[in-house]
Amino acid sequence: MMKSAMPASIIFGLMSLWACQGPQKMAEAKLPLASSQLMQSGEGEHNSEGRIAPDDMFFAGQYLGQLTRFSWKDPQPKWSEDSLASRSDGAVFDFQANFSEDRLLLMGSLFFKAADKDGDASISEAEFSAYRWDPSDYGALGGAVNWNFGPEVYRRLASQDGTLNEEALRSWFSKMGPLLKRECERQGEQSYKLDLIRSWEQVLAVHDSDHDGQLNIAEQRSLKQGRAVMVQSLRVR
Asked: Domain-by-domain residue ranges, the chain?
């Protein structure tokens, strides 16, 4: 774990751009993480690999955690056959950008990789019901949580032969945008942003191998390379 968290004033300003405006670069995420002076002055560039921003897999993992929590409120949710990609009302966030189609589809791949325990390229009813959202699946620290979607949801998604493949799962997750949007609106803008901040700090903490609360050059390279490999492994499935 990191000894000291990045000050909220620093990471909040960076993350708010990302959370509200979709997949774009964070402004000058220079490390060490705990120094606002370095962030503002540009000093210390020799200690940094450059800009470090949350990737699509991070957001997909966040959405999957959010959906897991929602499953305990409503284990048999209703969903539209339309995805969120075609609409946005601009409330609270620019959800059109934040819940992009690519991130929602990636959420399905992230789920499939974790849930397909026997490696047979399909999800059984037992595997679906037993899924546990685990932050380590998308490179973060934190405890695993069981989800509460069970046989009823599975049977709505499964094919006639009773199996559920990755394509069908990705299609279903792509339709979860409106549901996630409503949950974020209930939570509120500031609270949602702070959740993103804390979660991204847990990703950074994974690579803080010397536990000094900052990432040196080697740790920054480890972060970038490790996450690139994880994202690629999902996209080529």
From this structure: 8-54+198-235, 56-187
Task: Give this prediction's pTM.
Answer: 0.74
**Tokens standing for residue 61:** 């993992």
- Per-residue pLDDT tens digits for 64-107: 999 999 999 999 888 766 544 434 444 444 544 567 788 888 89
Structure tokens at 189: 């803008």
Q: Identify the architecture of domain 56-187 in CATH.
A: Orthogonal Bundle (1.10)
Alpha helices in 46-188 (DSSP H): 56-71, 95-98, 101-115, 125-129, 151-157, 166-174, 177-187
pLDDT tens digits along 114-148: 999 999 999 999 999 999 999 999 999 999 999 99
Residue corresponding to tokens 């964070």: 26
